[in-house]
Amino acid sequence: MQAFVTGATGFLGSHVARVLCEQGAKLRCLVRATSNLKNLQGLPAETVTGDLRDPVSLEKAMAGCDTVFHVAADYRLWVRDPQEMYRSNVDGTRALLQAARKNDVRRLVYTSSVATIGFKTNGSLADEDSPVSVSDMIGHYKRSKFMAEQVALEAGRSGLHVVTVNPTTPVGEGDVKPTPTGRIVLDFLKRKFPAYVETGLNLVDVRECARGHLAALERGTPGHRYILGGENLTLKQILDKLGDITGLPSPKIKLPYIFAFATGVIDETITGRMLNKEPRATIDAVRMGKKMMFATSAKAERELGWKIVPVNDALRRAVEWFRANGYV
Question: What's the whole-model pTM score?
Answer without folding.
Answer: 0.89
